[in-house]
Amino acid sequence: MTHVVTESCISCRYTDCVDVCPVDCFREGPNFLVIDPDECIDCAVCVAECPVNAIFAEEDVPSEQMNFIKINIDLARTWPSITKTKAPLPDADQWKDVKEKLGQLVR
Questions:
Q1: Where in the chain does DSSP place strands (E)?
Q2: What is the SS3 assignment for 1-17?
Q3: CA-CA distance, 9 to 14, in Å (whole number)?
């Protein structure tokens, strides 16, 4: 089992989760983070660190967010690893409570 980054992260890209990951399983895209399921050890320390509650255990992903399991798998194959915290996107605070942001995802 693995953890999955869901829609709440889109256009925010807070990286608090990255620093606590013991196996560096996060991958960084232009406006989103994903978890590489081949690297994730299911430790769950990242879940509490996410300020927008975007990270779920795979079995707990809300039904309307299930497509993010495949999105994490697909994007983790091509996006580079991120191992240190960076500043969130400049307008992250404006996006953090917005719902239905999949159309904003930059691949």
A1: 3-5, 26-28, 33-35, 55-57
A2: CCEEECHHHCCCCCCHH
A3: 7
CB 29 within 8 A of CB 9: no
Structure confidence by residue, pLDDT tens digits, 49-77: 999 999 999 999 999 999 999 999 999 99
Residue whose pair of structure tokens reads 């697909």 in the numeric block: 74
Dig out the tokens for 3 from the structure: 């953890």
| pTM listed for this prediction | 0.96
What residue type is 72 in one-letter code?
Answer: N
Cα–Cα dist 25/83, whole Å: 8
Euclidean distance between CA atoms 42 and 1, whole angstroms:
6
